[in-house]
Specification:
The structure holds two protein chains of two kinds. Chain A is mainly alpha-helical. Chain A has two domains: 3-74; 83-131, no CATH class. Chain A is 70% helix and 0% strand. Chain A has seven helices and no strands. Chain B has a domain at 33-107. The chains are: A mainly alpha, B mainly alpha. The interface between A and B is large, with 35 and 40 residues. Chain A: Keywords: Membrane, Signal, Transmembrane, Transmembrane helix.
Chain lengths: 132, 109
């Protein structure tokens, strides 16, 4: 899943969650309190714990799932822990860099002919520009 | 746990291990309080609330496994069971209880 979906998904989920929260609050205040009924029924079957409408519960659960997916998608990428996998990935992504760059760049490994040719081309370019 | 010999053959990058642990604990901290909000709204009590939390963390673990680790958990964690599936579950339960009680009290005042 692309990571640009993370922010909209999370924001939308938060919106739904706050809506569900306010709905639940409104629902709890809309039910008139019945002290006589509360006193007569045992606490375990108190009406508040089970009386939440299905749509509010569903909205809550769905919004939580949405936010979870959004958070996980938007999280930073994990990095491979074994050195060879990690170094190979770094080298591939940076185009020949990587943690062993220092070893690759030792003086003994320099391709002197390529460097000479590069320099000669550069000098030729400079001469060409000067004559123009 | 890998032996010394295995570690010498294929060394571990400590930086990556720390980075992965930080990513996991970030997600856990955020989602734990989120589950607290949800169970407070749903009005869950006692065991069902904790069951909801455990279920939620398991769901988040599956998401991490599928979306972040791409199913290759051994490549990103030394001990996948303790770092991915059970990492920071107990630490997150504190913030879970905090927001759970807060929202339970707010909604059912």
């Amino acid at each position: 899943m692309p990571s640009y979906l993370s922010r909209p998904l999370t924001v939308l989920g938060l919106l739904f969650l706050s809506h569900a929260c306010y709905s639940a609050y409104e629902h709890s205040t809309s039910i008139p309190h019945q002290p006589s009924n509360l006193a007569s029924t045992p606490i375990s079957s108190s009406p508040t714990s089970t009386s939440l409408p299905l749509d509010i519960s569903l909205e809550t659960v769905m919004s939580v799932i949405m936010i979870c997916v959004g958070l996980v998608v938007g999280a930073e990428e994990l990095k491979p822990i074994t050195w060879r996998v990690w170094a190979g990935k770094v080298e591939r992504e940076s185009g020949g860099g990587g943690p062993f760059q220092g070893l690759e760049d030792r003086l003994g490994f320099v391709d002197i002919r390529a460097k000479r040719k590069e320099f000669a081309d550069w000098v030729r370019d400079q001469d060409g520009e000067n004559q123009r | 746990m890998p032996t010394e010999r295995e570690l010498a053959i294929s060394p571990i990058v400590q930086e990556s291990v720390q980075h992965n642990t930080r990513v996991i604990s970030n997600i856990r901290a955020l989602t734990a309080s989120l589950f607290g909000v949800a169970s407070g709204i749903l009005g869950l009590e006692s065991y069902s609330g904790f069951a909801f939390y455990l279920l939620g963390t398991f769901f988040v673990s599956i998401l991490i496994w599928a979306l972040l680790a791409n199913g290759k958990q051994g490549q990103y964690f030394q001990g996948p069971l303790s770092e991915l599936w059970a990492g920071d579950v107990l630490g997150g339960s504190m913030s879970f209880v905090l927001t759970w009680t807060l929202f339970y009290g707010l909604v059912r005042a």
